[in-house]
Amino acid sequence: QVQLVESGGGLVQAGGSLRLSCAASGSIFSINPVGWYRQAPGKQREWVATITSGDSTLYADSVKGRFTISRGNAKNTVLLQMNSLKPEDTAVYYCNTAKLWGQGTQVTVSS
After folding, report:
1. Are 85 and 12 in contact (CB under 8 A)?
2. What is the pLDDT of residue 27?
3. Which of 38, 39, 63, 78 could disulfide-link to 34, CB 3.0 to 4.6 Å?
4. pLDDT value at 30 more than 90
């Protein structure tokens, strides 16, 4: 069974950057869109960004211009570059494809 594993989270000051990575155990990313979502404490999970199988990208208004979703050098990896981070970006970040979810990686932005 294909599994998704996120990594790259951590603690960063406001204005800083982090790069998240989502790795799949199979070649599922080549034929399915891949999305990043996040869930802050006490809030519902929200969509952040998507990259389609044709490499089109979509972003939530809250991250547009600051976050970039892309494919990694390894074909089974999708990245989320996060710049100009704000305290409100603090959340557990998850990747999703084909109804599969990873375990999440914590991002904490201090003010």
Report:
1. yes
2. 80
3. 78
4. no
